[in-house]
Design goal:
Helix content: 25-40%
Shape: elongated
Strand content: 25-35%
Largest sheet: 5 strands, mixed
Number of strands: 28
Structural class: alpha+beta
Strand order of the largest sheet: 3-17-5-4-16
Distance between the termini: 100 Å
Length: 423
């Protein structure tokens, strides 16, 4: 350090000497140097890059989490959040991707290959979320719908089926196949139908696939409260499988018309409908179909689809009946013990029966409290008249009035039929 210059200043009658020293060790700080500004910019670009990476990762995980059976996801009311994320998914993806691209291109990191590691991670997550964990990627639609008459049928007749009869034409859809595909669109008796099944709820439903009066196509999009959800192709609204209601989207609150169907063993269905057509396995998915009877027989121990053999537990079986705008649940164990239950739902008298195969069940409306129906070897008796177990008259032209009845898990019935009565 040395003297550079001596200055003399006068202020009024006083004189001042100012000595200017040279500090050779002084260097500009990082905030003011060109290199400092460059390093700060580089850190900002790096931060932008990793913020985009984190945001995109969290978005892709959330987009799947809320509509798939993951820990906690199905016990919260998050359907509107899930739909918001799905509806604006390309905006979110574009925003976070732009952050990643800008941060990557503007960064001058010496080892740019290191940034490829988080990019690879994001790519893997995106692939898994959209091509492996997406509902319609896990459970595909049939490549071809194959049917056979009874003589050419290859499906085990001990299997359960969802049966439909429209305009004199009957078709049976084995739950073994429905359980994988979740929904099948077909035509029966000239009418378009949407046959659905959710193994987590044990719910089989058949709807008319009409949206705003026009035929519609659907795809499996995920689940809400453990029940499968379908999306229509036109409005992208999400529909609940258990009752056909649009629970979010443009058509929220609308319902698909439900069609009458029955769940029976294939053997019972054939006996009651000898001219039926029976859905056969699509060879493309033979390995995906359940090859055991564990699910259908209630012997599965799966956390999601297994059965609790006790009564009125979450995974216990019940028969749910709708009559006069009211609902009531009947314990499966009680029905097996009694075989036939004469009861009342609101002001409507009903009867619920179980066939001797312990699989096929039917419900009918009775005219009065005094009109008791009895069961003998799968034959119903009422006032000396005999009926098949499906209510068709044997020695009379009269037919019992059927009621919608479904077998499902208790947690499903009580969730989607709030305030339901119990027998």
């Amino acid at each position: 350090m040395g003297v550079v210059e001596v200055l003399q200043l006068q202020y009024g009658f006083k004189k001042f000497l100012i000595i200017v020293w040279e500090n050779k060790s002084y260097k500009p700080g990082p905030c003011f140097s060109r290199q400092g500004r460059f390093n700060g910019y580089n850190r900002g670009m790096k931060k932008l890059f990793y913020t985009g990476i984190t945001g995109l990762l969290l978005f892709e995980v959330a987009n799947v989490y809320f509509i798939m059976p993951m820990p906690g996801s199905q016990r919260m009311n998050s359907i509107d959040i899930a739909y918001f994320l799905y509806k604006w998914r390309w905006i979110f993806r574009g925003f976070f991707s732009m952050m990643i691209i800008i941060g990557l291109l503007q960064s001058t990191a010496k080892r740019k290959w290191v940034l490829g590691i988080p990019l690879l991670l994001v790519g893997i997550v995106i692939y898994l979320a959209n091509f492996k964990m997406a509902a319609d990627a896990m459970f595909k639609q049939p490549h071809q719908l194959l049917f056979a008459a009874v003589a050419g049928n290859k499906v085990d007749t001990n299997r359960l089926v969802v049966g439909v009869t429209i305009n004199g034409i009957s078709k049976a859809y084995p739950i073994r196949f429905l359980g994988y595909h979740h929904h099948i669109q077909d035509t029966v008796g000239g009418q378009h139908i949407l046959v659905t099944y959710c193994t987590v709820c044990r719910t089989g439903r058949v709807f008319e696939p009409l949206v705003n009066g026009k035929p519609e196509q659907f795809r499996l999009v995920g689940m809400d409260h453990f029940n499968a959800m379908l999306e229509d192709a036109t409005t992208k609204s999400w529909w609940r499988q258990a009752n056909g209601e649009a629970i979010t989207g443009k058509l929220k609150g609308q319902k698909l018309p439900e069609l009458f169907s029955t769940q029976t063993s294939l053997a019972a269905w054939i006996a009651l409908n000898p001219s039926t057509l029976i859905m056969q396995a699509d060879p493309a998915f033979e390995k995906e179909y359940d090859s055991t009877l564990k699910y259908e027989s209630g012997k599965s121990k799966s956390k999601l689809t297994g059965t609790d053999s006790l009564s009125w537990k979450d995974k216990s079986w019940v028969i749910g009946i709708k009559a006069g705008g009211l609902t009531k649940a009947y314990d499966w164990n009680t029905l097996k013990a009694q075989r036939i239950i004469n009861d009342k739902i609101g002001n409507i008298f009903i009867v619920l029966v179980l066939a001797k195969d312990d699989k096929s069940f039917f419900a009918f409306e009775r005219q009065s409290v005094n009109e008791l129906i009895t069961l003998q070897n799968d034959t119903l008796l009422l006032n000396n008249r005999h009926f098949k177990i499906n209510g068709k008259g044997i020695d009379t032209a009269f037919t019992l009035q059927p009621l919608p009845a479904s077998q499902e898990f208790w947690h499903s019935w009580r969730t989607f039929n709030v305030g339901t009565a119990q027998y």
